[in-house]
Amino acid sequence: MPPSIGYGGDYNPEQWPREVWDDDYAAFKLAGINTVTVGVFAWAHLEPAEFRYDFSTLDAIVERATAEGMRVVLATPSGAMPPWLARKYPDACRVDFEGRRHVYGQRHNACPSSRDFRRAAVALAGRLARRYGTNPAVVAWHIGNEYGGACWCPECGDAFRKWLRGRYGSLDRLNDAWNTTFWSHTFTKWSQIEPPNALSEHWRGPDHTAFQGITLDYKRFMSDQLLEGFLAEKAAIREHAPDTPVTTNMMGLYQPIDYHRWAPHLDFASWDNYPPADRSSTRTAARMALTHGLMRGLRDGDPFWVMEQTPSVTASRDVNPVKRPGVLRLWSWQSVAHGADAVLYFQLRQSRGACEKYHGAVLDHAGRTDTRVFREVAEVGAEFARVGDAVLGGRTPARAALLVDWDSWWAVEMSDGPNRNVRYLDVLTTYHRALWQANVPLDVVPVTADLSGYEVVVAPLLHMVKGDLADRVTALVERGGTFVTTALSGRVDEDDNAFLTDVPGPFGALLGLRVEETDAQQPDVVNPVTLFGAEHDARHVFEVVVPDDAEVLGTYGADFYAGTPAVTRSARGRGHAWYVATLLDDSGVDAVVRSALAHHDLLGPLADSPDVEVTDRITADGTRYLFILNHGPARTVPIPVPGTDLLTDRPLSSGEPLELPPTAVLVVRCDPER
Amino acid sequence: MPPSIGYGGDYNPEQWPREVWDDDYAAFKLAGINTVTVGVFAWAHLEPAEFRYDFSTLDAIVERATAEGMRVVLATPSGAMPPWLARKYPDACRVDFEGRRHVYGQRHNACPSSRDFRRAAVALAGRLARRYGTNPAVVAWHIGNEYGGACWCPECGDAFRKWLRGRYGSLDRLNDAWNTTFWSHTFTKWSQIEPPNALSEHWRGPDHTAFQGITLDYKRFMSDQLLEGFLAEKAAIREHAPDTPVTTNMMGLYQPIDYHRWAPHLDFASWDNYPPADRSSTRTAARMALTHGLMRGLRDGDPFWVMEQTPSVTASRDVNPVKRPGVLRLWSWQSVAHGADAVLYFQLRQSRGACEKYHGAVLDHAGRTDTRVFREVAEVGAEFARVGDAVLGGRTPARAALLVDWDSWWAVEMSDGPNRNVRYLDVLTTYHRALWQANVPLDVVPVTADLSGYEVVVAPLLHMVKGDLADRVTALVERGGTFVTTALSGRVDEDDNAFLTDVPGPFGALLGLRVEETDAQQPDVVNPVTLFGAEHDARHVFEVVVPDDAEVLGTYGADFYAGTPAVTRSARGRGHAWYVATLLDDSGVDAVVRSALAHHDLLGPLADSPDVEVTDRITADGTRYLFILNHGPARTVPIPVPGTDLLTDRPLSSGEPLELPPTAVLVVRCDPER
Amino acid sequence: MPPSIGYGGDYNPEQWPREVWDDDYAAFKLAGINTVTVGVFAWAHLEPAEFRYDFSTLDAIVERATAEGMRVVLATPSGAMPPWLARKYPDACRVDFEGRRHVYGQRHNACPSSRDFRRAAVALAGRLARRYGTNPAVVAWHIGNEYGGACWCPECGDAFRKWLRGRYGSLDRLNDAWNTTFWSHTFTKWSQIEPPNALSEHWRGPDHTAFQGITLDYKRFMSDQLLEGFLAEKAAIREHAPDTPVTTNMMGLYQPIDYHRWAPHLDFASWDNYPPADRSSTRTAARMALTHGLMRGLRDGDPFWVMEQTPSVTASRDVNPVKRPGVLRLWSWQSVAHGADAVLYFQLRQSRGACEKYHGAVLDHAGRTDTRVFREVAEVGAEFARVGDAVLGGRTPARAALLVDWDSWWAVEMSDGPNRNVRYLDVLTTYHRALWQANVPLDVVPVTADLSGYEVVVAPLLHMVKGDLADRVTALVERGGTFVTTALSGRVDEDDNAFLTDVPGPFGALLGLRVEETDAQQPDVVNPVTLFGAEHDARHVFEVVVPDDAEVLGTYGADFYAGTPAVTRSARGRGHAWYVATLLDDSGVDAVVRSALAHHDLLGPLADSPDVEVTDRITADGTRYLFILNHGPARTVPIPVPGTDLLTDRPLSSGEPLELPPTAVLVVRCDPER
Predict the structure, then answer these.
(1) Above pLDDT 90, what percent of chain C?
(2) Which of B551, B576, B546, B404 has the alpha carbon at shortest distance from B473?
(3) Is there a binding annotation on residue A93?
(4) How far apart, in whole angstroms, are the C-alpha atoms of residue C543 and residue A10?
(5) C335 and C306 in contact (C-beta within 8 Å)?
(6) What pLDDT, on a 0 to 100 scale, did the predictor assign at position B674?
(7) Residue B146 is a catalytic residue
(8) Among A216, A243, A268, where does a domain finish?
(9) Taking a C-beta distance cutoff of 8 angstroms, is the pair C625, C667 a contact?
(10) Which of A236, B482, C264, C585 could pair covalently with C537 via S-S, beta carbons 3.0-4.6 A apart?
(11) Which member of C47, C155, C308, C376 is catalytic?
(12) Can you list the residues of chain B whose pLDDT is less than 50?
């Protein structure tokens, strides 16, 4: 990894006249740009006809970048195939959820099972690696682009059946897993199995399936199938570039791909940070923090990259607001604060035409460097150059963890009953926000993670319980830890079949209760829950709990289950297990989460300032860097630790008032603890 | 028919380990269950490969049920075909409205015209009948499951053309019926006729067609075609089980199938009672009452069965609330009150996996009998066992009737103009609710019904007028009866062509008026109608009426037709004919309906308590059983008739105050009238 | 052209028994009807089998019409093909946007590239022309009906590629135009190009495309392709009827067809006036005025026809209100006021069946002539007969122009970014309404129009700037004119590629500013703009403007660009160029437009009465006819000019109070100016 924060972005000069290349590099110097991602959409350039390769333009691009001292991130172009490929190999195009074979168009459109596409993509990746693999300026390989989507073609059907054979071994086991006696679905030959889509098991779209089992497996299969394409290209690259790290730009909280299944195969994680529009800057910041955490959690706490962000506007949304002044800098530093060692833009110069011509760029259509956007980009570049490198490689030890599980995400959102309005991300982000506003150092980890280092583990909507998870959670609690889970957890096994026991299945004994009924109501129905003397709104799902030995902390205030438990806590060994039997509003979740954290003295600094984010990185030499970021209005807070703000060289004394204007950023090198 | 109320439900032990069968029967005894429906989804079990039959599991199930003294309802499994059938015979799968051939998946998915499917389904039905047809425990046959949907495949196209030849005889007559000179559609060969769907006559979905005639006929055809499948299986059963009654579980107010066309072919009617979510418990109760009435009306007042209801929650809705305490009992008794001789659940034990795993059941995943749901099920079972049988076979003589007509339903909802917001069920349920809240004994009958026994006949949205209906209605009025109809009635003939006369066509002379214009407005536009001195809201459709000799009872209060008639009544012979020229709100419809009923002294008991339902059954020995059901909050009412509440053995004196808590049920054996 | 206002409409007696023909003509005489359009949907009658022609019915229809002294508009029936054609030539049916080949059904459904359809349509048009082309009663030919829609079949694909070769000459030029290096789309063979639809470049529907260039060209191509069909029929007619004018009924502000590309090929323009439902009668009137203006602008100010309007209700809307009393007359006269020389109905007798059976007609199903609708039709007929002819052929000279550009319409609505809520017609109608309420004589013209006669040119959302437009606009300003344009103008060239300069591209120098950023916000976000001392709401798009020498007239009141320019005006030569950098509300646009008009003394009469429309026509002899139309409530206004109201023969003295009841119409023959 390079010895300073990576800064730059996607650079596609093949889309521009060569005359502007000089202007490009002059601007990059002004902006402190040191990294360029090249070749992402260059297939048609590199291989204008099958087996006819032409590297002349890419040679020139790489040579120039190298000459300018840039670090080069070299992409394989498999994210967008050229027209000749689709025309010659129609099977390279996908069949969509509606069963329609597509023809050439768009991008991210290749069938992941197409042998023709695979062969062509791997061959080109190998060629690229052979040509550029030993160039020391190439600091990383970037395979494909934003992997995603799915295909339901016959070739995928074949691959799916093969994948199922591998998973289940026998049809008997598969029939059991999918509970096929229900509705007479017993499969007697593998060939009877059809990819689940609008023409087979689905109605009303991808979340409505007659058989959750087959659809769940198709999601797992498709995630694996896309990974297989990535791995095939990676293998081709490895032949010629054995040491250069390989990644692909992920999309954060992206439902269709289980990034936890991909993580072992990435040399480092990277993602594209385009947070969904939200009028609350704090919710947006929390969501980005969650995603940064998810990315950092993929590789056991290793630093990651922000591979893309826009310097100003997106284009693909219905409404595309510009980033307000200061936001670019705030978010860029937030990335670093959470473990990013590179922060890159899409893209360095604005597209001339097609669907991204209004997407923001470091340089606009006129190539100006006197715009607000360019000035802000250059300001961040200057700060990164001056102080950013100090934190490089720094890590963020955490005693609290949030569990994220794609299987539960998939299972709960495709479930018929109890309530389609329950969305995994809504609940996950509500619990995460509470943890984040408490400014607790937090890991975001899969359910397979080692929990032995944590004191508090929060697992919202842990619908599916797999493997030895219940045992590991119980061990956490026994040794003094706290576990928090919610309604709709502990419902199904790895096959999405209900546990044939009381709800919540394997967590029942730990939680000291059983759930007898699950009521559901429309979104406007509120049941007030009284918890620690305050009332909070509960919505959507209301489980009727019969406590065994769990302590009742919160109760419903309405309906026929008024007065019965809504929040409980059981004592097991030296620890506790919380159950929140409904979906609480923000204040309710705050009450639960802060109580659990406080018990372990884990409330972080400035936890009373809900818009002020505080997080830290600790470098190899033990230096702690504290990042203070204000996502809200101006505010004065007490300085939480003594140290020096590297951005201003200002010394900070603990407890003294610190004025935080909107979008304020401090990077505090903490004084060594005495 | 068995000599006590049937109680039990769908029982699919083939989906469960045999170990729980003992638990099942122990629980059934606790709950008073005497009836099990078996085999509904057993095709894959019964015929695991083509022509290879295996009845071993079903034998065991039936033997055990027989041994336990259960009545067995034996289903043919044609509601869900096995995978091998779809794979071998792709034509067995449907082509959907979008023109897409489906592959294997879901259920209720077989093409009703597929010879391959038909042959297989009939063969299996015959085998089942041969094997179990003489078992006296088998009290009824249940063919298929919830027939519905439609297919637009080429084989259906052929069958449709054949059906059309049968209906019209010649293309000339067909061209006339469909008015094909409009838009140059004159068909010159039968083969030119395409099934009407998104690829031919439709846009914006099934209700938007360029030619109402072809679409209407396709609906009629498809209803007939599904019936043909039912009849073929019935014939196969009849060969071996000539006397056991045959039914299928209908879906009540289900638009795609004209149950009136099916009725003559059912030995008894049965339906699945899953009322749509409605925040008003009273509207829900009224809707169930309407549907019970419709079912009772299918077979001329014969008792029917509730073949399915959920003991707690559904799973297929977006939001699935649990039934509140007491509601299961209230609704079960309501079913009996309206003529049900059996009340069954779907299902007796909860599914382990797939899309109904969260659907409620008598026994939950853990198999508990100490849950609220099980207790309520057992309470109903005990009551049925103790007092329910008294009412078995009882009938409900009525002097008022509500006309329901699938043709009008179809025609008015696929009409271009005047207003797509007019929905048949909205208007039907509004008029029915008014009748129901008046607690008048009511028949719900087709337009072909003999009207000679009625004094009041209400026919909302009778858009299409067929056969001698106008004559029969006129005769009703002439002999002193009252006829009430509404806007948009009397518009089209059996071919859905406009009557080439003044509106409302054949009713014009009877009603003593003509409709000159039909205004339509958005749903938020209200025109106040003054009727009997009170003002009511009218919406959606406002007909401008020119009265001939009709008496004007209500007038519009706004717009350019302010002051003109909105409600009229004509005197003909000894009776009256009402016309409501707009869509009135509840209070307006109440005013009309109660005035009409009062004229015949037909206002029922407790008609002032809008949430209290009172209905009766009279058994063969002349005993009258009055059911009093409280669907609203607690209320005290005067006892309407002297008798004895069989549920409490409490004697009741007429006129004394009766406290009705929420969900109260009384089954009053009335004292013989003196 | 005939020497009196054409009055009548679509007449399809082949759809009715001959018995009513006599009644028809009796009624026509009562109503002053002099024109019938025949044969629009008669293909199946005229050619019941391929090459078998039967003109007997049409002969009878034309003979009778001729005998009755009617003017006959003879339609070719290609708007609705007969069943035999689709069955024999499946390629005659379209492939839709989803890629599905349709089968027979509906109308307006023929593939515009189908050789089989084209051959049949042209042959029949030729036959008709040969038979009726010399009949002097035939005053016009009406080809097809409401051309529209699109097809994506392989034959269209071939035609599209051919069209592209013609447009671009080489693939290099095409690749440049579509900016195909973006996303690796470089085409290396023509055959690689697929029609853009849901299976290729599109997602989320027709407005969402990965490549705007290909989609834009497909729209241009499809508009041309439909025109090619029209021209082929026209050529066949011309062989036998060299002098009779040929038209087709257009649909006004219809997005899919660029009527400006069609205009040179029409002998006169005609359109079908079915304004979309709007609760504001004034907005509806303004929209009709805009469309009349667009139609008049097609042929350089020549009179046009209203080929269809409904006398009472439509049927195809979800909700179909009746026209209120007086509205039919008001709108009919408005048509004439804007240049219509004929005003026709769809249709003269109501359809018996199918999807237009509830569409209004001059004669209803019963054929009555004593209805309100018939009376109003007859009243208009009488007025036209008495005074309408005076204005025949009159023209409306204008010094103000509104630019309409289909390319900009298409481009701005398919753009990814900045804001999907920006709709071309919303902005166009807002600016038009302001001009219309100012009662300025206005031309509505294409961007290719000669601007030399105008003083004020208003061009909202002129997203695309083509050819020498910027030069012509600059010349307008230099010689003293005023140019007004808005946000999102001047963004792209004819290929929809961004200008590689500051925004707004070729208008930048004229406007004296550059746009540095474009902010976008959700529809509920308002930024108050202060302009001439008053505050107006701005929404959707907020450009951050850096003025060069433009005068700042209005400024934003909120957000980080508060205080920066929202409305500017630059002085160039003797004129001015306005830039409105956001989307203002009605009052804001009024302020801009009225200021611009006032500068040229172009505010029209009664400009303070927003519901009162005043427009004029000047006949060949120089007489000016002023039309005063009240679209709002009753109002008293000063008489604007001396003259005589021809409808009442009442002399009018300038300045005296004139009472205008609702729907008032005056046709004032102005006294000659002294």
Answers:
(1) 99
(2) B576
(3) no
(4) 26
(5) yes
(6) 63
(7) yes
(8) A216
(9) yes
(10) C585
(11) C308
(12) 1-2
Question: What's residue A673's pLDDT?
Answer: 76
For chain C, residues with pLDDT lower than 50 are 1-2
Q: Which of B181, B200, B216 is the last residue of a domain?
A: B216
User: What was the pLDDT predicted at A1?
Assistant: 43
Structural domain boundaries, residue C618: 612-670
C314 contacts chain B (CB < 8 A): yes
**What amino acid occupies position A520?**
A
CA distances from A65 to A133, A135, A143, C147 (A): 15, 11, 19, 55
Distance (Å) from the C-alpha of residue C539 to the closest C-alpha of chain A? Answer: 12
Q: List, as residue ranges, the binding site of C for Zn(2+).
A: 111, 151, 153, 156
**What's the CA gap between A1 and A620, in Å, rounded?**
15
The neighbour count for residue A657, using CB atoms within 10 Å, is: 9
**Closest by Cβ to C560, choosing from A319, A324, A353:** A324
Residues in chain A where the model's pLDDT stays below 50: 1-2
Q: What counts of helices (H) and strands (E) characterise chain B?
A: 17, 27
- Other beta carbons within 10 Å of C48: 14
**Partner residues linked to B345 by β-bridges:** B9
Q: Let me know if residue A332 belongs to a domain.
A: yes
**Would residue A308 show up in a list of annotated catalytic residues for this protein?**
yes
Please indicate, yes or no, whether residues A405 and A553 belong to a single structural domain of this protein.
yes
Examine the predicted complex and report whether its ipTM is higher than 0.95.
yes
Nearest-CB residue to B365 (from A179, A187, A499): A499
Packed helices C212-240 and C154-168: angle between N→C axes, nearest 10 degrees: 100
Structure tokens at A95: 């069949």
CB of B206 within 8 A of CB of B409?
no
CA angle, C511 then C513 then C518, to 5°: 110
Quick one: A560 and A427 in the same domain? Answer: yes
Alpha-carbon distance A500 to B223, whole Å? 41
Q: What is the DSSP string of B34-89?
A: -EEEE-TT-HHHH-SBTTB---HHHHHHHHHHHHTT-EEEEEP-TTS--HHHHHH-
On whether both A268 and A363 belong to a single domain, the answer is: yes
* Touching chains, A (3+ CB pairs < 8 A): B, C
Spell out the residues 6+ positions from residue B369 whose beta carbon is closer than 8 angstroms to its own.
Answer: B27, B30, B31, B363, B378
Using an 8 Å CB-CB cutoff, list chain B residues near A516. Answer: 371-372
Q: Is residue B605 part of a domain?
A: no
Find tokens 């990435």 and name the residue.
A266
What pLDDT sits at residue C673?
A: 76
Give C212-269 pLDDT, tens digit per residue.
999 999 999 999 999 999 999 999 999 999 999 999 999 999 999 999 999 999 999 9
Q: Which two tokens stand for residue B500?
A: 């080439």
Question: What's the residue count for chain C?
Answer: 674
The residues facing B340 across adjacent strands are B304
- CATH number for position C629: 2.60.40.1180
CA-closest candidate to residue C305, choices C363, C263, C354, C247: C247
Strands (E), A263-360: 270-272, 304-308, 340-345
pLDDT recorded at residue B1: 43
| Residue B229 shares a structural domain with residue B208 | no
CA A669 – CA A649 distance, rounded (Å): 10
Put simply, whether A276 touches C (Cβ < 8 Å) is: no
How distant, in Å, are the alpha carbons of A537, A543, A582, A603 from that of A585? 5, 16, 10, 20
Q: CB of C48 within 8 A of CB of B188?
A: yes
| DSSP 8-state secondary structure symbol assigned to residue C661 | -
For residue B148, give Cα distances in angstroms to B194, B219, B222, C584: 21, 11, 9, 53
- In 3D space, the residue among C421, C408, C433, C589 whose CA is nearest the CA of residue C489 turns out to be C408
If asked whether residues A314 and A270 sit together in one domain, one would say yes
Q: Tell me the shortest Cα–Cα distance from B616 to chain C, in angstroms.
A: 42
How many Å lie between the alpha carbon of A203 and the closest alpha carbon of chain B?
A: 9
Token code pair at residue A395:
């890590």
